[in-house]
Amino acid sequence: MEKENLTLIDIPPNILGLEPFDFLVAVLAASPFLILGFFISEFLVVFLIASVAAGVFLKIKKRDRGYGYIKRWYVRSVRKLIGQRVVIHA
């Protein structure tokens, strides 16, 4: 049996009907758009979280309960996530 010559990067000859070099060129050409899309999606997620937090804050401020209520609500939700019993003396 003959041994095949395997290179460091063994690429199948036809991926999606492309030659290996064409496939690498296509991946390299698309990489800036992939990176840009990743950053845009990260900013969108951060913006979504910030807008939800701002909405909750405005709803609490509209009720005029003050910042202590925000702190109690935050501590209560964190303790529920952790699984501890919620004991808050207001």
Descriptive overview:
- With 90 residues, the chain is mainly alpha-helical.
- It has one domain.
- It contains two helices and no strands.
- The protein has helices spanning 20-63, 67-82.
- The model has no long low-confidence stretch (mean pLDDT 70).
The biggest beta sheet, please?
none
Distance between the termini: 81 Å
Q: Please tell me how large the radius of gyration is.
A: 27 Å
The global form is elongated
> How many separate helices?
2
Strand content: under 5%
Average pLDDT, rounded to a whole number, is 70
Number of strands: 0
- Ranges where pLDDT stays below 50 over 5 or more residues in a row are none
- Range of helix content: 55-70%
Number of domains: 1
Structural class: mainly alpha
Written as H for each helix and E for each strand, in order along the chain, the element string is: HH
Key features?
transmembrane helix; single chain; transmembrane; mainly alpha; 90 residues; membrane
Give the topology, please.
Blueprint: H1 20-63, H2 67-82
Q: Brief description of this entry?
A:
The protein is an all-alpha fold and 90 residues long. It is built from two helices and no strands.
